[in-house]
Write a structure and sequence with these properties.
Blueprint lengths: L2 E5 L9 H5 L4 E4 L4 E4 L9 H9 L6 E5 L1
Antiparallel strand pairs: 1-4, 2-3
Amino acid sequence: MSVKVELDIDKCQGYANCLIEAPEIWDFEEATNKAVLIQQNPPEELRAKAESSARGCPAQAITVVVD
């Protein structure tokens, strides 16, 4: 099974909940106050963290697609 994480940067409000939930997948750019996706295709063992980061985003800027 493959996992793909997508970020709508225009929706990102800089809450950084994604980084708190999944620091292996996300970073934060303080200059822009936006999330930075560092693993678009994380391994299956990070799937739960990817999904948690999407659920925890107040701006609903994150989508996780599992094939």
